[in-house]
Amino acid sequence: MAAxxxxxxxxxxxxxxxxxxxxWRIWREQVPTYSRLQRLGLxxxxxxxxxxxxxxxxxxxxxRAARPLIEGLLARFPHYSLLxxxxxxxxxxxxxALIAEQGATDQPRLAHRLxxxxxxxxxxxxxxxxRPALAILFETELWPNLLYACRRQAVPVAVVNGRLxxxxxxxxxxLRPLMESALANVxxxxxxxxxxxxxxxxxxxxPSTTSVVGSLKFEQPLPxxxxxxxxxxxxxxxxxxxxxxxxxxxxxxxxxxSAHRQLLKHFPEALLVLVPRHPQRFDDVAQLCERDGWEVxxxxxxxxxxxxxxxxxxxxxxxxxxxxxxxxxxxxGGSLVPLGGHNVLEPAALGKPVLCGPSLENFSDVAEPxxxxxxxxxxxxxxxxxxxxxxxxxxxxxxxQAGEAGQAVIEAHRGALSRTLDGLGRYL
Length: 428
What we know:
Layout: H1 6-17, H2 19-28, E1 52-56, H3 60-76, E2 81-86, H4 89-100, E3 110-114, H5 120-130, E4 132-138, H6 144-152, E5 157-162, H7 166-173, H8 176-183, E6 188-191, H9 194-202, E7 210-212, H10 224-237, E8 242-248, H11 253-264, E9 271-276, H12 282-291, E10 296-298, E11 311-313, H13 320-325, E12 329-332, H14 345-349, E13 354-356, H15 364-372, E14 376-378, H16 382-394, H17 396-412, H18 416-425
Parallel strand pairs: 1-2, 1-4, 2-3, 4-5, 5-6, 6-7, 8-9, 8-12, 9-11, 10-11, 12-13, 13-14
């Protein structure tokens, strides 16, 4: 039975009502080399040659997580090109960097465009112009009008690495008629875990279209280019105790600086590498550090780390792996504040002991095996964070064992990529 139309029509009416606000936001966040008309499904040319696969990722983190899938699609289906879309300007930058790193034979098969806004006309124009053989949406990127346009134009839709945190599930439950209408247009949903699959089904996804394949985040390859930069940083920092706080969020930096101040009482040479999640906050975080009297060097300004530097601000894009690799211990942000946390696997894959706060809802499925292996430690306060950091710095062997345990967990959980590609192959 077809899903009712009214939820999608009501949703579209609300979008039109918010159009002035949405237009203002688009005008502010824009990649200079892209036409703003792409947000309306226009000015998409040139496109990679047909037949095409279309893969959509929300932003930076999703593009990074999707890299094994992108490279797997190019290798598994050599007769197809791939159009990658993102919603944000920072995601666009990450996508372009990924394309630039591909080989000469694959680069012409891979292109990036900005996703159109989910207005009915823009969605219809986009799908009609791209004419994908398969649409792939990463994680929770469920746009009702784009999904409907795919169905109307007979384009199969796969949701891969599908996840719904308890918090997101609670929000979507309040919009269940709309979610049921959107999920009715999904051909195959590849969930990260059985819990995620159950949540999608509770929102209206048919069990017959749902599979549990595991998390693609366990498939991340080692970033060889980043590791070379890590080695250079290690030499420049000359053996100082270094901890890296990555993907930090508003309100969290002050807590981390408090922990660092406590750590300096025991290890005066310790260096904090602080990497905020969003680039629009780089200057705010720099001002916070300077206002509190910290000796700060900024990576974006190529300021060197001197013996007096206490905080190194990683205010650049696409370098988090290199910075993680140069630290002794990694802290993953968005977790000492109630925001659900970020990717704890990225530093674990580099063999680093990983710390985080108690808010882990977004990555609970990958955090659990790391916690069980003692590769991940949860701290609930700046004091607890400082104490755990001091223990790792004082006992390098303990830190090394935690890092090796994390790498072993990742290796044991591989396989989601192969299962995902096998599933997608049924529609190509």
